[in-house]
Design a protein that fits this description.
The complex is a heterodimer of chains A (about 140) and B (about 150). By secondary structure, chain A is of the alpha+beta class. Chain A is built from four helices and eight strands. Chain A has a single domain, classed as Roll (Thiol Ester Dehydrase, Chain A), CATH 3.10.129.10. Chain A is globular. Chain B has about 150 residues and is α+β, with helices and mostly antiparallel strands. Chain B has one domain: Thiol Ester Dehydrase, Chain A, CATH 3.10.129. Chain B is globular and about 50 Å long. The termini of chain B are close together. Classes of the chains: A alpha+beta (about 140), B alpha+beta (about 150). Strand 5 of chain A pairs antiparallel with strand 5 of chain B.
Chain lengths: ~140, ~150
């Protein structure tokens, strides 16, 4: 089996991430897809009833938003650098600002620093307006 | 709010409470233990939630969702009332990857509640709670309106 970071590298070179859900089972489970816009990875989570945490509001499960932010941060690092292995999350802190409505959610990330061993990344998730994030995360990843 | 407190108490201690949360149902999360302010749940291993297909390790995101949820459950287990609340902040430290093909357990304890905020710590583990795979710290805010979806009809 081809290592995931190699698969991601090929998707990056071809600028075609349509194979993401096939390469990562959990991406399929969450309905995650990725696309490049102006040199940045935009990670999307397509709405599905299985993502709901509170059926009264209704609102997305906070855990799905955490997962989206973590994947967005991971994809941005993998997009920016050639890794020898899939970066591993060391720690992630998520701030929830607004409840996630029952609709598609998007996320983008900025690598604030990519060192030899560790990458520091900030990620934001939004639904209708990127300037009004529903949640944000700071994450550190171990490289190689 | 016309919720029978006794019925609510019984419901939150049962699998019904988790089953009322669609994303937990999708992950197949099972209640293991429930006591005042403390909850333990189990995430069964399944290929659909693998993050790294090279290794078969469960995605960090699934562990995050599990920890977010068990932390919230511990708040319900402490306050035992149907008021809705929202996650303010969640920090997760990943100490080691989950061993493939094996279930992941998560425990959380709500150790302090104020009028508006609940403070929680928790962890995820497989074999032994002495060797956690991830630690979580979370705060929740009571939103002051609405109630937990599961409390409807009680």
């Amino acid at each position: 089996m081809t290592a995931f970071h190699e698969t991601f590298g090929r998707m990056k070179q071809a600028n075609d991430f349509s194979g993401l859900q096939q390469a990562v089972p959990y991406a399929k489970f969450l309905g995650i897809s990725a696309a490049i816009e102006e040199g940045r990875v935009i990670t999307s989570m397509a709405y599905a009833d299985t993502l709901i945490g509170n059926t009264t509001l209704p609102a997305l499960h906070g855990g799905t938003i955490a997962a989206l932010l973590e994947l967005a941060a991971l994809f941005q690092i993998a997009y920016e650098i050639e890794t020898e292995a899939m970066p591993k999350t060391i720690t992630i802190t998520i701030d929830y600002m607004r409840s996630g409505a029952a609709r598609d959610t998007y996320a983008r990330a900025w690598a604030t620093r990519i060192g030899r061993r560790v990458a520091n990344v900030r990620a934001e998730a939004w639904q209708d307006d990127p300037s009004k994030p529903i949640a944000a995360a700071n994450a550190n990843f171990l490289l190689a | 709010m016309s919720v029978d407190p006794e019925k609510f108490q019984r419901m939150i201690q049962s699998q019904k409470f988790l089953d009322g949360i669609p994303h937990m149902g999708a992950l197949g999360v099972q209640l293991v233990n429930f006591e005042v302010g403390k909850v333990t749940v189990r995430l069964p291993y399944r290929p659909e939630i693998v993050g790294n297909p090279d290794t078969g390790v469960i995605a960090g995101g699934a562990i995050s969702a599990l920890l977010d949820n068990v932390c919230g459950s511990s708040v319900v287990a402490r306050v035992a009332r149907p008021n809705a609340f929202a996650t303010l902040d969640l920090r997760i430290d990943y100490m080691k990857p989950a061993v493939p093909e094996r279930d992941v357990f998560a425990f959380a304890e709500c150790y302090k509640v104020t009028r508006l905020i609940a403070f929680v710590r928790g962890y995820a583990y497989q074999d032994s709670s002495d060797e956690p795979i991830a630690n979580a710290t979370a705060t929740f805010m009571f939103t002051g309106k609405g109630m937990l979806a599961q409390a409807k009809g009680l």
